[in-house]
Amino acid sequence: MPELPEVEVVRRGLERWVAHRVVADTEVLHPRAVRRHIAGAEDFAHRLKGHRVGVPSRRGKYLWLPLEDTHQSVLAHLGMSGQLLVQPDTAADEKHLRIRVRFADELHTELRFVDQRTFGGLSLHDNTPEGLPDVIAHIARDPLDPLFDEDAFHRALRRKRTTIKRALLDQSLISGVGNIYADEALWRSRVHHERPTAGFTRPRTAELVGHIRDVMNAALAVGGTSFDSLYVNVNGQSGYFDRSLDAYGREGLPCKRCGTPMRRRPWMNRSSYFCPKCQRAPRVSS
Question: Is the separation of the CB atoms in 5 and 241 below 8 Å?
């Protein structure tokens, strides 16, 4: 699933092409694409019509389009294969086009939600006083957020008493970090994914957060990580950070730091990639 860099790439594209445009009409082509909007497809389309889209916002992996003249936002669930594309209104429909949003201007472009596997969708929600859709009010700030509180994260990490990779994927502690960037940041920090969080010192936490920021900024610079055609920006272009990965997907290849063959271990229905020499497993207490 897309992580923070991929979602931020989409958000930036939407800011350029969609912000401050008025919705003329919305066409829902598949009901599953609005299944999280309980009132249904007709209500969803009716509620968007005539409203001006504000500056697209993001927290962690969550992306939403605020409606400027209301206290509501359209939350985008990209799921496994969801894409938000800005296309000329004369372009042929994509095979898996689920929602079309037309605008009341002369730019001749429209916003399309395309989703091959129909796990994603769009839904309309009330905003919290902070400006977040209410259904994601529990999501923590991400490391690229200027208001991210590193000390508070460190204290929460110590209290959690879990293992470090589980903590990094807990969106109520720190948002935006998924499986790929967790493995990358842990490799850069020389930390094994099963290391207990209770033993983290403040300097060690600060170092890890710094590496998370570095790897995410590096991914952002090249458009995110695209392993297939499903992860694209609003113009349909893939990112290529996958060419720069140090850990994820490199099982059997030499560690870029010490040359030891990288390993993969099953982990929570996913995989963890690490160097057995640089990232030594924690000792099991007897």
Answer: yes
The pLDDT tens digits of the residues spanning 113-165 come to 999 888 899 999 999 999 999 999 999 999 999 999 999 999 999 999 899 99
Distance of CA 32 to the CA centre of its chain: 21
pLDDT bin (cut points 50, 70, 90) of residue 286 is very low
Q: How far is CA 25 from CA 28, 51, 76, 94, in A?
A: 10, 10, 18, 19
115 shares its domain with 236: no
User: Encoding tokens for residue 10?
Assistant: 């989409």
Distance of alpha carbon 111 from alpha carbon 115, whole angstroms: 13
Q: Which of 110-124, 223-237, 257-271 has the lowest mean pLDDT?
A: 223-237
Residue 76: is its pLDDT beyond 50? yes
Residues marked as catalytic: 2-3, 61, 270
How far, in whole angstroms, is CA 283 from its chain's centroid?
A: 33
Q: In this structure, which amino acid lies at residue 277?
A: K
Residue 84 pLDDT exceeds 80 = yes
The CATH number of whichever domain residue 44 belongs to comes to 3.20.190.10
Look at residue 176 and tell me if it is in a domain: yes
Helix residue spans in the chain (DSSP H): 4-17, 41-48, 150-160, 164-168, 179-189, 202-221
Q: DSSP code of 30?
A: -
d(CA 242, CA 50): 41
Largest CA distance in the chain: 71
Q: Answer with the one of 106, 136, 166 that is the final residue of a domain.
A: 136
CA atoms within 13 A on the CB side of 187: 27
